[in-house]
Amino acid sequence: MSRKNSVISYTSSGINDKVQTFSLKREVGLVSAVSLIAGTMIGSGIFMSPQWVLYNIGSPGGSLVIWAACGVLAMLGSLCYAELGTVIRESGGEYIYILRTSGPLPAFLLAFTATFAVRPASITGISLSFAEYAVAPFYQGCYPPQLVVKSVAAACILTLAIVNCLNVRFSMSIQVIFTVAKVLALLVIVIGGVLLLFRGHTDSFHKAFEGTIVGINNIGVAFYQGLWSYDGWNNLNYATEELKRPEVNLPRALMIAIPMVTALYLLVNVSYLAAMTPRELMSSNAVAVTWGTKVLGSWAWLMSVAAALSAFGSLNGTFFSGGRVCFVAAREGHMPDILAMAHARRLTPSPALIFTTTLSLLVLIPGDFQTIVNFFSFTAWFFYGITLSGLLYLKIRKPHLHRPYKVPFIIPIMVLIAAVLLVLAPIVDNPQIEYL
Ligand code: ARG
What we know:
The structure is a single chain. By secondary structure, the protein is mainly α. The chain has one domain (7-435): Amino acid/polyamine transporter I (Up-down Bundle), CATH 1.20.1740. The protein is built from 16 helices and 2 strands. It has a two-stranded antiparallel sheet. Helix 4 (60-87) runs antiparallel to helix 10. Residues 1-22 have low confidence and may be disordered. Residues 40-41, 43-45, 122, 126, 228-229, 231-232, 235, 314, 318 line the site of arginine.
């Protein structure tokens, strides 16, 4: 039974024993919704992953195919989520969908894994990339000390935690501003790339598919890296209760945000490859800075700033949704009640945010970016798969439910097959204890 109505709220004057139902305010409109999705998707990945996709797949053509395929997968996945989000209209993303379709045990496992491992890991991963790019201008030509990088990452996590505890509207305006800033930054890379192509920098694209590696493990890891950059396509489903007119705005926001991000990612990759050879791209560990050095010359530091800002905005979106999973799970009785409390006046789920922050800071101590990305994508797609089977269940067993948005049957089946392959392929090909 839902415990929605039995949460006791705390106010500044002590325990308020008036029984309350919590709903967060409906403050998110279409523009905010688009930036909540695009702003979370565009983050660290497009500045960190291209060399890994290329490295694993072995050829520029192959790498562009992977980037496009990841975009298509994100789009199809999000269409399935649009139906889920308009049928099950509660916030909480995968958690609430799994709870309503597969029952409390899988939902509890998801909430547990998400709260204790996946969210903190993604927060830490993005904050690390923020820190790497933020300190890059001060350590030109050498690697920055780990202590400096991790301290900057911790400062970034703490700042955003405080902002998100203070005010939903404020954290939304940060989101809009950063989304605009990073879309502009990516556009600079795209325009630079187009100019390069016109000037005849097309060497990387001759024999584009030469050297493509078709091993299961390589393709799997290339997808993990690419999908990390697209992750966040499901972000709005964490906050459907805060969305104005969700039945209209949820599908609409997805259909604007995801194709836009896919196009940008593809063009940015083309631009990277126009500016440098595949070999240079693979050996660069901050590809945007290498691109900047080649194309912008002494203005290359702009790219460090852009990449850092981009990660900052993405982290903000991750916080926004991360606190909410914890909050919704606690509201259902799957987490301690204190995590279900929202601030009495500001209506932000502060205790859940503070909890997520603490765990992220703990993960930060030993964490490194690459391991986190592979761990993240593997675990995330495992749960996306379970969520999609829930959607199929609803479509088969409850066809009469009111569905403001209906996704064709074949789409969840295709995405489910992709999720199964993504999760099984690396395990079968190269079993490792981490997967367990
Ligand atoms: N796509 C983001 C990036 O490239 C990572 C998103 C992590 N996941 C999330 N739900 N916030 O940095």
